[in-house]
Design brief:
It comes from Tangfeifania diversioriginum. By secondary structure, the chain is an alpha/beta fold. The protein contains 28 helices and 8 strands. The longest helix is centred in the N-terminal third of the chain and has 33 residues.
Length: 702
Amino acid sequence: MAKSKLKKELGLYDVFSISTGAMFSSGFFLLPGLASQYTGPSVFLAYLVSGLLILPAMFSIAEISTALPRSGGAYFFLDRSLGPLIGTIGGLGTYFALMLKSAFAIIGIGAYAAIFWDVPIKTIAIMATLFFMALNLFGAKKSTGLQKFFVTFLMVVLGTFIIDGLYNVFLSDKIDIPRSNDHFRPFFTNGFEGLIVTAGFVFVSYLGLTKIASVAEEIKNPERNIPLGMILSLLVTGLVYFLGVFIMVSVIPPDDFANDLAPAATAVKKLFTWMPGNTAAYLMAGAAMAAFASTGNAGLLSSSRYPYAMGRDKLFPPMFSKVGKTGTPVHAILLTTVFILLFILVLSEEGIAKLASTFQLLIFFFINFSVIVFRKSNIESYDPGYKTPFYPYMQIAGMVISLVLVVYMGWMAILFTSAIILAGVLWYKYYARVRVQREGAIFHWFALLGKYQYAGIENEFMSIIKEKGLRKGDPFDETIIRSRITFSENKTDFDHLLNYVSGIFSAEMHVTKSELVSEFLQASSIEPALIIPEISILFAKKKGIDHPSLHIVISDEGIVKPVSKNGITSEDTIRIFFFLVNPSKEPRQQLRMLSRLVDVIERDNFVSEMLAFKSQRKIKEYLLHNERYITLQLLPGTEQEDMIGKQLKEIKYPSDVLVALVERNGTTFAPNGNTRLLKNDVLTIIGEPKSITQLYNLYMKV
């Protein structure tokens, strides 16, 4: 059976490399001279302005990616926020835009190679495409391994270029400083309007920043690595663009600069005079080829995830959702490769990037709107680990910026965008509509559209929360350790049990018993995700409590629980009840803890194994992460013998572990620093996996 799940193997530097590698190509090596025609020497400021203009889209994508780390990027976000029609349009448009940009970048490899070697441009481009295809088929990690090499080499060369250039401009007599340099006069050749037009023209240089969203499903710890990787990438890239283009303006005469298609190579010849012969030109050509290669490779990697994600959602044929033995979407990669080869063979390079960027700007408009939709929908399981600052003003600004820049792209680009929208509408109407039965989060926003709400979106988002796991600081392990366990040996009914448990919570938390009973019985939109045979999970949120509490009830005979659905009443026999109460100020923490609990419950033979345990300690250990706890029995003649007779505070454990439970003569209790350990005590120690492994090697390894 073919797999349909991607491997999580990309770390922070992979995120940085994909994002940075997708930006450095035409923006630095081809566009600066052409862009200077619109605004003159102030072109380096236009790059800075353009970097600021993409901030709203970057923040919005970072927020949604940490809430919904799924392959497909913009497609998945738009589909789940605005519905499958907009998702289809956005998915197809972004897919083609990324492929066009990738084809353009790969052609750049052949173009720079042709400067120094007598080789056909398109032949080199086709060979490079097939090479990148092979890398992507072997896995995202191998693909990003090459990506990291490209980006590292590029950063070294461009860093050297900037340091040498700034030294020559400000600390030597070789090049005049800006106020004495005629290259900087007049600074704005077309005033403020020229600067804004140029910012729109070079906006394409930053569009690769958001490519990382399309591989979000393959990123480890996405709530940290996605926003941090994107922010670091924008800072580094913006600084390199700003300083690099400033140096080009300083060393290249304005008239020559405006017509130079390789301004970086021209500038390095004037700066790197300490290198023999054409070494400097070869070095910059190598950097340019690395830049184009990184963009092409990152483009194939990210764009191939669009047919994969759309196939998984039935908007594309299902074959594209299949994952091969190496954990990559083989058919999606092959289809993307075919399209890129087709573009290389039949299209000219002129205008490709501009056409692609126009549709991307429209996608940015919808993505900024999507953040507003998700926030306003009040879907409980929308749980971003990173939230965009200055909401909603940041999103409104991003929407306005996108529309303004699209206008400056010209009528040909707008016609292209219209054609893609029409293609998306037709594809959805004649292929996808009959296969898809869901709506976006926007129907949860407007009460008037309430009858069209798609209940499955809550379940899907809950499954994503479960995959992401607990967030740092979520007290799941501590809640398990503190939990109360009741073995129901006498026959009882559900109402009696509910009142009994609610009464215990009421006494411990100083909350009203009747309110707890009512909230435990209240229906929730996430309940379908919690239905498991012979198990019942009831939950509530209360003000005035400072930590979650859990009560577990185990019944060998089972307790009959009434169930009502769609007006039909039935009964289930429940053997294990979980009652969870969380502080109301942390509603999404409760969702994460419920998701983790479901993850544990879904183990094979969970009910039979829980019923077999008669020790509270063993039950609690069974519910904990295996790698996050260790059990030690204090026996003479063992490594742990030294602990016998000592108080806990006298024993030096790693700083991030805690002796959570002590079992003594069949009784389990939570110890404190003054607890004196005795022979045959059984300790349950919880902590970070690294420290638990350290304790295992010290006390238990044979």
